[in-house]
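Please decode residue identities from the backbone states below.
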């Protein structure tokens, strides 16, 4: 890909991620705002979800800072191009990750190792959330209203009848986002990735996949045909 193509796909990935954040917020009754260079919420977003997502490399803090709540704990910003310095506004760097992209023309795994199933009831969503979070009581993030969003698929991944993992797919203009992928056992991670890619081709055929990862999950994504597009950075307000 040329640098122009990479920039364009990364912008589309950022918009897709902002669409997903907006879907999660709507399921909580929290409105969001799309501007030309950023998406933001004036109310505190659900756990793990940013209060603002930048959409372009030339976004500046003035485009969104006045619209978000930096006075109560937990305010965060997803700097999609890792170009901002928000330290003077009271933020600290939380983590970096890589945007990833899998072209539509790349064949899906012909025979995924595991079976996927769409989550369609509140009870099954609770089971999915418990497995996704693991351990202690899960935070209130994924609500049943998400299951009625036509752009969203929450999927479980099974080995026979045993739950092996899960993933969320969200469709926006021209592509599909892959997020919240988890494997119950680390030994199943590669198979869960393969099965999630195949499921995306089934639910949203003919569309490229995007997302962001770091660490071992980035390696699994690359093994599955994704390429890294560039760095994003998440900032947390030190309030």
């Amino acid at each position: 890909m040329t640098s122009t193509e990479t920039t364009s796909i990364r912008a589309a990935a950022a918009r897709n991620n902002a669409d997903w954040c907006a879907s999660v917020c709507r399921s909580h009754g929290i409105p969001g705002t799309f501007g030309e260079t950023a998406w933001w919420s004036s109310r505190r977003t659900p756990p793990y979800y940013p209060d603002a997502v930048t959409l372009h490399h030339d976004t500046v803090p003035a485009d969104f800072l006045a619209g978000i709540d930096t006075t109560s704990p937990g305010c965060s910003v997803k700097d999609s191009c890792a170009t901002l310095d928000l330290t003077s506004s009271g933020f600290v760097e939380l983590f970096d990750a890589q945007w990833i992209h899998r072209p539509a023309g790349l064949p899906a795994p012909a025979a995924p190792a595991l079976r996927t199933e769409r989550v369609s009831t509140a009870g099954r969503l609770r089971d999915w959330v418990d497995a996704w979070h693991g351990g202690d009581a899960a935070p209130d993030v994924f609500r049943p209203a998400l299951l009625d969003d036509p752009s969203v698929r929450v999927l479980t991944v099974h080995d026979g009848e045993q739950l092996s993992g899960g993933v969320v797919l969200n469709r926006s203009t021209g592509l599909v986002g892959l997020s919240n992928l988890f494997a119950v056992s680390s030994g199943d991670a590669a198979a869960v990735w393969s099965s999630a890619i195949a499921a995306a081709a089934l639910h949203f055929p003919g569309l490229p996949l995007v997302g962001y990862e770091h660490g071992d999950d980035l390696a699994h994504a690359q093994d599955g045909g994704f390429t890294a597009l560039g760095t994003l950075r998440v900032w947390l307000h030190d309030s």
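Observation: The chain has two domains: 3-101+231-237, 115-227.
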